[in-house]
Structure formats: C-alpha cells, structure tokens
Amino acid sequence: MHEPIFRFAKATDIEVIVTLVQSAYRGEASRAGWTTEFEFLGGQRTDPVEVGELLSRSASCMLLAEEDSQLLACCHLEKQEDRCHFGMFAVVPGMQGGGLGRRTLDTAEHFARVEWGCHSMDMQVIDLRTKLIAWYERRGYRRSGIYQPFPYDDARFGLPKQPSLRFELLRKMFVPDSQQHVVSPVDGKDPHSNMRNAR
Question: What mean pLDDT is reported for the chain?
Fold first, then answer.
C-alpha cells in the first residue's frame, strides 16, 4: 500500500468507524487478523452512541488512516492532564501485520507529544492478550501491574466468554524532542485537519 493519509474524524465518519472497530475485534470476520477478541468476548465492541460521545468531548478525537478515501485504521486519543489516553485502536483485519498499525500508533504518539504536550501515552489491554501486549512492549510500552476488572454487568463493552477478565494499564513515557515519527498537520490546531507522514 501507499503511505496512508491521516486525518481526524467528523460526525459523518461515525458509522464507518463502528464498522471497522467491530470487524477488527468481534465476530468471525475479526479472526482474519491477529487483534481479534473472539476467544474472550462476543457482542459489540462499540456503537454509534459511544463513538459520537468520544467525538463530542473536549481534548478528545479519533485519528483515521485512509487510502483512496477508504478507512483502513483508527484510534481514539484523549488528553488527560499531561498524559494521553489511547484506545479503540483498529486496523482492517486483512491488512494487519503489514506496518499500518505501527504507522498509525507512531502518528498518534507524535500528535499527543507535539500538539498536546503530553509526557506519556496510556492504554488498557486485556491482560490475557499476551501477543498484543508483547507488540506494544516492542514499541516502548511497559506493563504497570495496575489492573481494572472487566465490566461484566455492561453489555455495551461486550459479552465475556471467560471469567476473571481484567484490563492492565500499559504506559509509554515520551522522550523529549524525539524524532521517532514526524507528521505535518495542515493546521495543528484544527482537530479535523488532514495529516501526512513527513518522511
């Protein structure tokens, strides 16, 4: 594939975001990729209401990676004091393992560090997902040993297939003035601007 174009989501993108996230995590289609949660969870991963709420918050946005106007990857970013929360990370199942996820994560980290001035990136991952956690560890994230129970009583987060599911906090501290991945927003203050990799 060519280098993707990165931009921030608008309300008109909600339905396609939901479709991508569902395909990457839940149901038979998700098994074509390695990020699937099929073994642990059924039901929904997100819905239009949740995505709409994320887009409506202050200091919260969805970063999209596209090629030829087709959505290939997405993630949610939210500034929380001097930290950035990273979540709802999804890549089209058939394109996983080809570097698109890494480029999307690099772009998200750069935006959080340079535009928001964050010192670190946090995320929560189901601790049984050892392969996924290892992928993040290779990109500088560290396990914290801080856990949060899975919300078994809330079907909005999915239908658990196993007992004792829990999230673990992963964190990456940013290196000051790091040039690990450079992007050039058309307008860094506009959360809906297009972004391209500069390298």
Answer: 84
Domain that residue 177 falls in: 5-197
Check which CATH number belongs to the domain holding 87 and give it: 3.40.630.30
Please report, to the nearest 10 degrees, the dihedral formed by the alpha carbons of residues 162, 163, 164, 166 taken in order.
40
Tens digit of each residue's pLDDT (9 = 90 or more) over 119-162:
999 999 999 889 899 999 999 999 999 999 988 888 878 777 88
Angstrom distance (rounded) from CA 67 to CA 91: 13
Q: How far apart, in whole angstroms, are the C-alpha atoms of residue 193 and residue 64?
A: 11
How far apart, in whole angstroms, are the C-alpha atoms of residue 128 and residue 133?
9
Structural domain count, the chain: 1
pTM of the model: 0.84
Nearest to 13 by CA among 43, 48, 41, 46: 48
